[in-house]
Specification:
By secondary structure, this protein is of the alpha/beta class. It is built from 17 helices and 13 strands.
């Protein structure tokens, strides 16, 4: 980066931090994008004159609201509700809802910002948004989750719609929550539309939406591996998380011939040297999606499995790592352990799971490394396909959806190669994804004038 561009980035970030104090995750996500796109922006000074980057980091609208609800004992609880409508240059706002005790404005702004570029990469007409609450569904009864969802939607329904903003799931928001949210939306607005995605199959959902993010991660990984003449066949794979993305990343990686030896949750990780198989994965799906138990129980159920309380899986030797839990779950020491353990490919299923220091370690060591905004875009892409099916009142077969998903992931990979291949041939997927995503959003913002 030349001196002028470096100064541009430093000034931009100083101003951003001063204007958005106490939002470290948002600063981190913006810095990563600005570092990648600054050379393009300084080569196209009209983007500086039009203050495109300054406009991109200011959400078009942030909605914050009170979510009061009662538990099964009749006690009253108050949570915070949010929707960040970040950018609608390419289409209506689109992005998930997260229910987790860690949720705050910084995390949702980082996620909405990332979402804008991710959605642009999918080539589908979707803007970027994200929302959620600091409500923690763990340990709550179905009735409590339903009352919370109904209260949350009672406010949110005023701000969303099939042509305005279409939320989906994320951490803590799966099929059960989408069902309760959709039911309340329908009741209050008296309309049956595709306003939420991730719906049940019988009432507007798309085949393969639950699988899409995890499958997409593996399709993207296949493309990355192919650039080095490799594949999943016979490789040892570490996966973190045990929720939606982790479950289906594991399923597809196994189907492609890999041995998946770890999973985790917020309490710890399991190491299964024999590898998961169909029976073990079916157990995980029931444990996490129906019984809502802890991953620790996997180690109690199957012999030869180690449970590592309070630890991440990254110290286990592997060839491929798929982080599928949460942000900043691979720190510097974890990255060093992965490289030392023989890992040569890291493909993000979660959003921003790798810290900037850890990314530098992967890239300096020449690993194949892809950011979530490229490799986990299959989820939102299939939500986009769900919106299309809802609009045309049709339902595609699983094969049709899978074909679209495959093509979209392969196109995103091609875009990363186009903008991210460096002079020495190394593919910088961070740079590639950021520039490819940015160019389209910036172009649309220029076309649409100062709004
Ligand atoms: P789920 O709620 O289904 O699963 C999340 C998993 O991550 C759980 O195993 C959870 O453990 C674990 N986890 C959550 N927070 C932490 C934490 N602070 N430390 C350690 N583990 C944690 O969510 P998803 O699988 O849907 O989402 C996982 C990631 O993928 C997120 O980053 C999300 O933004 C991203 N993503 C999801 C998409 C989707 O379609 N669902 C699309 C694109 C990205 P526990 O059970 O203990 O909470």
């Amino acid at each position: 980066m030349d001196k002028f561009t470096r100064k541009f980035v430093d000034n931009f970030m100083n101003e951003l931090i001063a204007r958005n104090p106490g939002e470290p995750e948002f600063h981190q996500a913006v810095r990563e994008v600005v570092e990648s796109v600054a050379p393009y922006v300084t080569e196209n000074p009209y983007l500086i004159d039009l203050r495109i980057l300054e406009r991109m980091v200011e959400p078009e609208r942030v909605i914050m609201f009170r979510v009061p609800w009662t538990d099964d004992l009749g006690e009253i609880h108050i949570n915070k509700g949010y929707r960040v409508q970040m950018n609608s240059a390419l289409g209506p706002y689109k992005g998930g809802l997260r229910f987790h005790s860690s949720v705050n404005l910084s995390i949702l702004k980082f996620l909405a910002f990332e979402q804008t570029f991710k959605n642009s990469l999918t080539t589908l007409p979707m803007g970027g948004g994200k929302g959620g609450s600091d409500f923690n569904p763990h340990g709550k009864s179905d009735a409590e989750v339903m009352r919370f969802c109904q209260s949350f939607m009672t406010e949110l329904c005023k701000h969303i719609g099939p042509d305005t903003d279409i939320p989906a799931g994320d951490i803590g928001v799966g099929g059960r929550e989408i069902g309760y949210l959709f039911g309340q939306y329908k009741r209050l607005r008296d309309e049956f539309t595709g306003t939420l995605t991730g719906k049940g199959l019988a009432w507007g959902g798309s085949l393969l939406r639950p699988e899409a993010t995890g499958y997409g991660v593996c399709y993207f990984a296949q493309e990355m591996l192919a650039t080095r003449g490799k594949s999943f066949e016979g490789q040892t794979v570490l996966i973190s998380g045990s929720g939606n993305v982790a479950q289906y990343a594991a399923k597809k990686a196994m189907a492609l011939g890999a041995k998946v030896v770890s999973l985790s949750d917020s309490n710890g990780s399991i190491y299964d040297p024999a590898g998961l198989d169909e029976e073990k994965l079916a157990y995980v799906l029931e444990l996490k999606n129906i019984k809502r138990g802890r991953i620790k129980e996997y180690a109690e159920r199957f012999p030869g499995v180690t449970y590592m309380e309070g630890r991440r899986p990254w110290s286990i030797p592997c060839e491929i790592a798929l982080p599928c839990a949460t942000q900043n779950e691979i720190e510097k020491e974890d990255a060093e352990a992965l490289v030392k353990g023989g890992c040569y490919c890291v493909v993000e299923g979660a959003n921003m799971p790798t810290t900037p220091e850890a990314i530098a370690i992967f890239q300096n060591a020449g690993l194949l490394y892809s950011p979530g905004k490229a490799s986990n875009a299959g989820g939102v892409a299939t939500s986009g396909l769900e919106m299309t099916q809802n609009s045309i009142r049709q339902k595609w077969t699983a094969e049709e959806v899978d074909e679209h998903l495959h093509r979209i992931m392969s196109d995103i990979h091609a875009a990363c190669l186009k903008y991210g291949t460096e002079e020495n041939g190394y593919v910088n997927y961070v740079k590639g994804a950021n520039i490819a995503g940015f160019i389209k959003v910036a172009g649309a913002m220029v076309d649409q004038g100062l709004v």
